[in-house]
Amino acid sequence: MRRVWGEDALLLERAGAPVAELAALEAEIEASLALPGRGAWWDAHVHLGRDRDGHRLAAEDLRADLDRWGIAGAVCFPANDPGADGQFGAANAAVLEAARRSAGRIVAFCRLDPRRAWSAALERMAAGGARGLKLHPIAQRFAPEGPDAVALVRAATERGWPVMIHAGFGARPLAGPLARLAEAVPEARLILAHGGRGDARAIRDGLAGRQGVLLDTSLATLPDLVEIAPERLCFGSDRPYGEHASALQLVALAAALRGWSADQREGVMGGNLGAWLPGTA
Amino acid sequence: MTAIEAVRLVAALARAEIALVRKDPVAAALLAQAARDADGLTPGPAVAAAARMARDVDLSADAPAAAATRKVVQALCRVAAQDAQAALLRGAP
User: Fold this and answer.
1) What CA–CA distance (Å, rounded) separates A253 from A271?
2) B66 touches chain A (CB under 8 A)
3) Number of A:B CB contacts under 8 A?
């Protein structure tokens, strides 16, 4: 199946979209990328499965996307699909199964709701090979600095897991609550998603320079990324909500604007994540 | 791209992006305006393609083909906005 801009070209043709023109525009983006280490890049932020809002991504489609862009692998976790148990049981199991079949190209993080009983689910996911935790305070409506979330982050940290936390769109301020979470679990390694765009200036000032904090670039904004040291960034796409062409362009533009060295570019595209998840870069 | 052109385009694309996320039919009109704003500029071809697709396809529909097209239009808006923001951050005149 041919894919363009992360979508099935046949579906686009059926809708009347100009697929050849779209492919040419995508190729222009690809030609403009001045990012070293292609083939060893890692995507830190991918959702597998189907979101309640209709977004979906199957493991085989992700594999096609990764191959298309020369991306070695991806950290994957469920979309917003809590399922019958409300604790992402089926969705987490599906991500684990995808990781098992991926020959190392998919690293599974488990997505959990800290307001519900999570201990058994965490054990199951750890036994199944999960290597990190994904939290979404907006979708699951919890306070990241609250006792439930702190306990879950502490449990994940005790396993040596990084914790990916949504830090994108949302009405509530994020920087203060996330700083309090980091203070409550000082040894935690937190990946703040979307470049912290949900509270960008406060996160830049209060969290972005803190030890144990990375920010992923998925659906981030250019003005936010250029204010963050590249050593604190890891590439992400937020598939299927985002796609790889614009995600890669974003990093390439930030790198050019700030004059990142080749080492810094390689760090953002995989090395910084690999330091936290050995074997991914 | 001058700073004024870039600011105008970023603002137009931001309006269109929200309309697309909300599946609001006004997205087609907003993208048509953004395409005029982008005409002759580096992001022009991407915004023109997005505007044509928004005109020709009902992007507010939930059918898989419409949803896929909507996602591509959003992606084109992102690359165009990022181009314009880069021009501003480079210190466009």
Assistant:
1) 19
2) yes
3) 80
